[in-house]
Design a protein that fits this description.
Layout: E1 13-18, H1 21-36, E2 40-43, E3 47-51, H2 55-65, E4 71-75, H3 84-92, H4 95-102, E5 105-114, E6 119-129, E7 135-136, H5 138-147, H6 151-166, E8 172-177, H7 185-188, H8 190-198, E9 206-211, H9 219-231, E10 235-241, H10 248-254, E11 258-261, H11 263-266, H12 273-289, E12 292-296, H13 301-310, E13 314-316, E14 324-325
Parallel strand pairs: 6-8, 8-9, 9-10, 10-11, 11-12, 12-13
Antiparallel strand pairs: 1-3, 1-4, 2-3, 5-6, 5-13, 5-14, 6-7
């Protein structure tokens, strides 16, 4: 099965546009050099497209020999033009491509318990190895990938790694995914479904979490993704639900099997009337649509006792175990 370009960390390309007689003349003179270095993709009188491997040299050269204010550039995958100085952070974040290309993802897992204190599931979390073997924070890696348009490839890598890890665990597994990273469920999720089948893992063991704070604007697209999962026997959850979560009517359209109360409303809930109000609101909404309510970030016994008494059915947090590498 061939890969779509979004799933592969191909070298980025930059469009560069110049104005002014001086810049145009200089651009014309350096085109043969860029071509000889195999970094030139295309060129015309006032613009060119080059591979990222040529960008650092071009920026250094332009600072000495061109009028910086009359140059703008953008990724070929973007519509937004930027100044050369605004491109530098993208170049600085190029290390994330190697993480994706080399598959340097380390799966961790954290237990999810039921109200009787029995193991119900594990959430599989992704950690990332730097070149020197140390771990980079997920926030740092995902931020770098997003800035470079690599979110699609990174999300797929994490999802496939998590599916493989599920074969080493005895329980259900919760796996995060970013809905905005999926162009077409039929194409982008086929490999996920195929891998689960290849490993002989029942679809009902998987719960795919969609993070509501990803600000999914295309609800119909999200529904197509979730329908694709549901029709193949998988379950799904809304993650990090808080005070601003969707209306019951919207939840009824999405039909999540699980709803996870954001840890910000879990920690200290036993002593906070405001947090209790949010927790009970989520609980009522879950009950109305037949979803299982789950509280994440449980650390204090008094918060656990309040949530369990209120009616929450599943619990996750340091009180039950910290994330640890998946063994095997």
């Amino acid at each position: 099965m061939s890969e779509c370009q979004s799933c592969l960390p191909l070298e980025l390309q930059y469009c560069i546009e110049v104005t002014g007689a001086h810049n145009t003349k200089v651009l014309e003179q350096i085109v043969p050099y860029l071509h000889s270095r195999n970094v030139l993709v295309s060129s015309s009188a006032a613009d060119l497209t080059i591979h990222e491997s040529g960008m650092a040299d071009f920026i250094d050269f332009s600072q000495d020999h061109m009028e910086q204010g009359a140059i703008r550039c953008r990724l070929t995958t973007d519509k937004e033009w930027r100044s050369l100085s605004d491109i530098q952070p993208l170049l600085d974040a190029s290390w994330v491509d190697a993480i994706i290309r080399e598959g340097r993802v380390v799966p961790y897992c954290q237990p999810i318990m039921d109200a009787q204190g029995e193991l119900y599931a594990h959430e599989i979390l992704s950690r990332f190895k730097r070149q020197d073997g140390t771990l980079a924070s997920p926030l740092e890696v995902f931020s770098a990938a997003k800035s470079r348009g690599r979110l699609y490839a990174l999300d797929r890598l994490c999802r496939m790694t998590a599916v493989r890890s599920a074969a080493k665990l005895p329980s259900k597994v919760f796996i995060n995914f970013i809905p905005t990273s999926i162009y077409s469920p039929e194409h982008c999720l086929r490999s996920t479904v195929g891998l689960a089948s290849e490993l002989g893992i029942e679809p009902s063991r998987f719960v795919f979490e969609v993070v509501e704070t990803e600000y999914v604007e295309d609800i119909d697209h999200l529904k197509r993704i979730l329908t694709y999962y549901r029709e193949r026997g998988f379950r799904y959850a809304l993650d990090d639900v808080g005070e601003g979560f969707s209306t019951v009517e919207m939840l009824q359209q999405i039909e999540p099997h699980y709803m996870k109360l954001d840890m910000g409303y879990v920690r200290g809930v036993a002593a906070s009337a405001a947090k209790q109000e949010v927790a009970l609101k989520l609980l009522r909404a879950a009950q109305q649509i037949g979803a299982t309510p789950l509280a994440e970030g449980v650390e204090a016994p008094e918060d656990y006792a309040w949530l369990r008494e209120a009616g929450f059915q599943l619990f996750q947090g340091y009180m039950f175990g910290k994330p640890a590498p998946v063994e095997g």
